[in-house]
């Protein structure tokens, strides 16, 4: 089987150190599935891990994947051979930039039957990040009518996570305000269901005043935690919650949270996996809920660009596009033309 | 009526700048009660506010009070004249270091009928801080059987807040580990219901290993947030929650929260009041629940020392004792010998 890897950390401006190599097709055991991959998507976290030293070489990056169950361990309960599935895997396994991959069934769900492989590949990592943020961090109700009076602010609504977080939040009854700057990103965010898109080139507190908006219940930062730290506290209600998925560059003053007793979480969708939480199966449940909502036409895929074929060149191009910070929605690489 | 105030910020080593003065008895309006005070307790927050410049002079400090409803505004719904009540008030009103005080009925509850004034005075501020932390921050269930598998770590279990937080947490079914250092504080914390008291003179992570303890669901810091920041993250479970009520002296690295997606709240029990939250009445509800539990014998008062009479001298002595950081439970000043 084929895989794309790299032997060390590298920056894109130093050249393309990804290369293709052969590896032996692994054998699934216990609750593992072996999946023949049909499409993958590339996420910002891939570009960050690429710049860290691997513990063994070559390292295969990639989380999101869609494919067909080709073999399974003897404790698998949730799937059958031939099932079409999607998932965003785990840092504990080699990544999805390969033609066959092992994955623990507890983080996998059935692929939405009304989506293409490319469309389905755009969803798992971002949908799981958004689901954990909404349900585990903000603890929103699973009854949409109970969320009608609640408002969520998403800093950067048009990226991968912002795009699906907007849809899930709307699906569960929240009011959603997002931010964007360019005309095309504003339009995209409205397409994802945002009730109002503010311009993050302007001061957000001033934008709130101009639109006569009250402080929000929940604030979700998907872009530059340092820049927005004080603003998020200002725009969040007393006893409200802030979540970020973006690492800080600077230390911050936690006393600023005190006056409004604000809660802050650094959300990380692999925390359950790397710390072997008892409820890892929550990923299967969240993703299954996404599948159901997609099949009912409530959520739409967020793919915006597709590259054809798993190659070192395509992977390098994908990383370049993600590091440009200009991405709208998700970038997918299709593997349907790959040989077995 | 009599009040104790000070005209400016002062440190105890510069002398006693508290003084007694006469003021006119105020008239309650809307939802206000005028309470004839029978006992007050002194809290660490009083010593901190004393060291800040007042916006007007003389400033009357104090939050906790127990007394009798002497007059009421025309919108009062929850109380009658002559009711015995207790509360920890609001920074929006003059404090409780006086013989009559105005208070909004939404933060007041009926005094437990089986407690003396001194005993009741020990509870409101600490019980409200503990209740907000347990229910609003940790979001524990109000059904004790649903909390049986959850564990709370309280850094400094023998202080005012730690003492009542231990009791409420036990009352609602949690397992409670506390920390203390001296023999008498350890014994006190066990009396409050702690399942295990660790020695915070030792490294707490090492104490956890020696007692073969797992990471906890919730960590509550009532002493030195900077010193315990990294340790609390280490000892808290993936997707667990940390609350502190102690201001930080240093900025902190929020990226340390990421690996376990840990949530952190800077709890402040006056945030609802100073930001005029819609659910200020939650204080009435929390305190009413404490009254019921005390009357059923489930919680005990935390008073450990009583000074007799509202005087500048007694208040200065109380502030000295609190600033020694040696307090066990609560210090109360009794006003029953005061004239009308």
Automatic annotation (TrEMBL), chains A, B:
SMART domains tied to this protein: PKS_ER
Pfam families named in the record: ADH_N, ADH_zinc_N
Residues annotated as domain Enoyl reductase (ER): 15-333
Keywords attached to this entry: Metal-binding, NADP, Oxidoreductase, Zinc
InterPro entries membership: ADH-like_C (IPR013149), ADH-like_N (IPR013154), ADH_Zn_typ-1 (IPR014182), ER (IPR020843), GroES-like_sf (IPR011032), NAD(P)-bd_dom_sf (IPR036291), Zinc-ADH_QOR/CCCR (IPR051603)
Coiled coil: none
Origin: domain of life: Bacteria
SUPFAM superfamilies per record: GroES-like, NAD(P)-binding Rossmann-fold domains
Family: Belongs to the zinc-containing alcohol dehydrogenase family. Quinone oxidoreductase subfamily.
Name the record gives this protein: Zinc-type alcohol dehydrogenase-like protein
Source species of the chain: Staphylococcus marylandisciuri
Lineage: Bacteria, Bacillati, Bacillota, Bacilli, Bacillales
């Amino acid at each position: 089987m084929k895989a794309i890897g790299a032997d060390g950390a590298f920056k894109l401006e130093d050249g393309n150190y990804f290369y293709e190599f052969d590896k032996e097709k692994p054998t699934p055991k216990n609750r593992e599935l072996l999946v023949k991959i049909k499409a993958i998507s590339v996420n910002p976290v891939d570009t960050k891990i690429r710049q860290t030293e691997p513990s063994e070489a070559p390292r295969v990056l990639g989380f999101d994947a869609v494919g067909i169950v080709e073999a399974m361990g003897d404790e698998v309960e949730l799937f059958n051979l031939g099932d079409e599935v999607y998932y965003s895997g785990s840092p504990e396994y080699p990544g999805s930039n390969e033609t066959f991959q092992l994955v623990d069934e507890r983080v996998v769900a059935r692929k939405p039957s009304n989506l293409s492989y490319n469309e389905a590949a755009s969803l798992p990592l971002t949908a799981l990040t958004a689901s954990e943020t909404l349900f585990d961090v903000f603890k929103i109700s699973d009854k949409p009518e109970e969320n009608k009076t609640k408002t969520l602010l998403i800093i950067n609504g048009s990226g991968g996570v912002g795009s699906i977080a907007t849809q899930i939040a709307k699906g569960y009854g929240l009011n959603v305000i997002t931010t964007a700057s360019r005309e095309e990103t504003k339009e995209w965010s409205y397409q994802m269901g945002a009730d109002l898109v503010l311009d993050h080139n302007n001061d957000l507190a001033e934008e709130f005043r101009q639109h006569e908006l009250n402080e929000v219940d929940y604030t979700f930062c998907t872009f530059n935690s340092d820049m927005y730290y004080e603003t998020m506290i200002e725009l969040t209600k007393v006893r409200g919650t802030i979540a970020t998925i973006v690492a800080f560059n600077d230390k911050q003053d936690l006393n600023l949270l005190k006056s409004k007793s604000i809660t802050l979480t650094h959300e990380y969708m692999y925390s359950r996996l790397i710390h072997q939480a008892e409820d890892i199966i929550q990923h299967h449940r969240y993703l299954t809920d996404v599948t159901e909502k997609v099949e009912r036409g409530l959520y739409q895929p967020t793919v915006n660009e597709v590259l054809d074929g798993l190659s070192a060149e395509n992977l390098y191009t994908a990383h370049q596009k993600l590091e440009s910070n200009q991405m709208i929605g998700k970038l997918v690489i299709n593997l349907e033309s790959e040989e077995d």
